[in-house]
Amino acid sequence: MNQQQRISPQDWQLLSAYLDGQLSDREKTRLEKRLSEQADLRTALDELRQTRALLRSVRMQRVPRNFTLTPAMVEKPRRSWLMNLVPVLNFASAAATVAVVVMLAVTLLPGRGLPMQTAAQSTAAAESMPMSAAGSEPTPVLQWNAPGGMGGGADPLMEGKGGGDGNDMRTFDTGPGQGFILPPQAVESLPEGSAEPQQKNFTAPQPALTATPAPSGDAAPPAAPAPAAETGQPQATPVMEPSAAAAQEMEAPQEPLSGAGPILGVQNAAEAEQRNMEAIGDPYTAESSPQPSARRWIAPAVLALFAVISALAAWLIRRKSGA
Amino acid sequence: MDEAALIRDAQQGDLDAFNRLVLAYQDMAYNLAYRMLSDPDASADATQTAFLSAYRNLSKYRGGSFRAWVLRMVTNTCYDELRRRHRHPTTPLEPLDEQEDEEIESARWMAADQPSPEEELEQSELNQAVQICLQGLPEEFRAVIVMVDIEGLDYQEVSEVLHKPLGTVKSRVARARLKLRDCLRQFRELLPAEIRLQNEESV
Questions:
Q1: ipTM confidence score
Q2: In A, residues 19-48, which contact B (CB 8 Å cutoff)?
Q3: What does each C-alpha distance from A176 to A152, A158, A181 come to in angstroms?
Q4: d(Cα A21, Cα B164) in Å, to the nearest integer?
Q5: Is B124's Cβ below 8 Å from some Cβ in A?
Q6: Residue in B55, B181, B195 closest to A69 by CB
Q7: CA atoms of A316 and A80, how far apart (whole Å)
Q8: Cα separation of B38 and B31, whole Å?
Q9: Alpha-carbon distances, residue B154 vs A12, A76, B32, B157 (angstroms)
Q10: Rounded CA gap, B61 and B48, in Å?
Q11: Secondary structure letter of residue A163 according to DSSP
């Protein structure tokens, strides 16, 4: 073992090649000179020589049979009809891949339906909608003093859209044509728990108004309690437990949306229902996108799947055919 | 035998000419497969497959050593078979010792083996020792050392077979011999007397 450590791999290689006569004359002369001087090298050479002699003394195995070929063996196997499909599948897979790439490129090109842009447009539409939708409706009087505000809560970004700062006691007296509606995006951005108190504190003297429920269900219940109870206690502390509020929200879709809506009377029941359904869905796509963004990906996904399946099928056929 | 003429005829579809080449090289091809795969049946299958492949690809033969070209077919077939074994491992070739419940790769197993007279005749102890040690080598080293030391090819031919530079062949031969030297030491008692004596002297 020590000897093996002393002999470098290069020397082992030189010795091995020397045994096989694979060294140049110059290398051979140099090695022979070293061999005459270094006993370790001579021992190593002897060991390699013995190993080589041992291997060369191994007798050849007798073949168990002749391996000559018969005409039947060399006859080319009939090409399976499945093999004919391979080029077709290859082409289909390549074409589908190209189509997927093109579709993705078109979809992701600027101005061609980026999800972010869709969201921005949707938000803009939602923000402008209350003004136009409630233009002819009577004036709702909105008043609250609880933390958070309509559509904005304590979020300073939502100021000006009916949101309070949560500390000031404010009364919003909206003028004609300024009915409130809760954009789904605005409601979604509310801090958790900020919307619930406000539902119980505002005053809405118009009993025929309709409220719009929030899309996520954690904000505004669609219909406020009876006007009599509300108007009498405009600044009352909320008495509804969160669980009760949640229960009410859960039941909201079954309750009629018109007639008893004292709060945000801007839409009739049909419109409210439509907005409810939109709000339940993707808030980005429900508003203004004519084609939901999820559907944009269906065609590329199907094509990509097709490409993968075609390629797999071609590969399997080739593999089974041994080609 | 005019090998070039036989190859030319075989390339034109003369199966008899090709079969004469098969008979000339089948011993070498089978032995390479046997040393690589260590299984007579699998080696026979690999040899047959290699010759069939050689016949079908004869048009791609562009001169040079036909022996190296045939052995390349054999080597590639063996590599395929070894890869298949790695993917689908089966029971080990070595018998299990029922008492110790472990694989035996020692000289004791071979000494205690009870070979039939035919096996005894066919597989000498040296043969088995070399075969066991060869199986302990990486496949690339095994192929090189079998071709050089058992089949007697020169480095240049092995380089053609494996499509590897001469330096790689040289290095692999040296490292394989070194590993085999270490492995064969444990079989010293089973080796031929003259080699055993030399080993003992050197140790």
A1: 0.78
A2: 20, 22, 43, 46-48
A3: 21, 22, 14
A4: 19
A5: yes
A6: B55
A7: 13
A8: 10
A9: 18, 35, 15, 6
A10: 18
A11: B
What pTM value is reported for the model?
0.51
- Total number of residues shown for chain A: 323
**Residues of chain A contacting B177 with CB distance shorter than 8 Å:** 16, 48, 51-52, 55
Nearest to A67 among B26, B145, B152 (CB): B26
| Through-space distance between the first and last CA atoms of chain A, rounded to whole angstroms | 50
Tokens standing for A254?
């079954």
Per-residue model confidence as pLDDT tens for chain A (323 residues): 455 557 899 999 999 999 999 999 999 999 999 999 999 999 999 999 999 988 888 888 899 999 999 999 888 766 677 778 888 888 999 999 998 888 888 878 766 544 555 444 555 545 545 444 444 455 555 555 544 444 444 444 444 444 444 444 444 444 444 444 444 444 444 444 444 444 444 444 444 444 444 444 444 444 444 444 444 444 444 444 545 444 455 554 454 555 444 555 555 666 666 766 666 655 454 445 555 677 778 888 888 999 999 999 988 888 877 65
Q: Is B30 on the interface with A (CB under 8 A)?
A: yes
Alpha-carbon distance of A194 to A207, in angstroms, equals: 24
Strand partners, A302: none
- Give the single-character DSSP code of A159: B
Query: Distance between CA atoms of B123 and B127, rounded to whole angstroms?
Result: 6
Distance CA A144, CA A180 (A): 14
